[in-house]
Specification:
Layout lengths: L2 E5 L2 E7 L5 E7 L3 H20 L5 H9 L2 H9 L13
Antiparallel strand pairs: 1-2, 2-3
Length: 89
């Protein structure tokens, strides 16, 4: 279960991965409700990774719409693949 904790002016989302290791990301500039919404999605991503199942359509769409900052944090935590950047012409 992913959970949200407050750390000064930002929130931290914590969860346990398939290896029973505790993971966390920090999100700032968000309300508690927004942080809880992200935590719910993180739990969905972690569950899919642990069970080796594909993401549902809603979760995949959410990941596709993420900004680079949050997507990078999730990729660093091993929940999503890193984005491949195409060179600009």
């Amino acid at each position: 279960m992913a959970r949200v904790t407050k750390e000064k002016a930002r929130y931290r989302i914590k969860w346990c991965d398939g290896d029973k290791r505790h993971r966390r990301i920090r999100v700032s500039g968000l309300s508690k409700r927004q942080a809880e919404s992200i935590a719910w999605r993180v739990q969905s991503l972690a569950g899919a990774k642990i069970s080796s199942k594909a993401l549902d359509i809603a979760a995949a769409a959410w990941v596709a719409e993420l900004g680079d900052d949050l997507h990078g944090k999730l990729a660093e935590a091993g929940l999503v693949e890193t984005r491949k950047r195409t060179p600009r012409k």
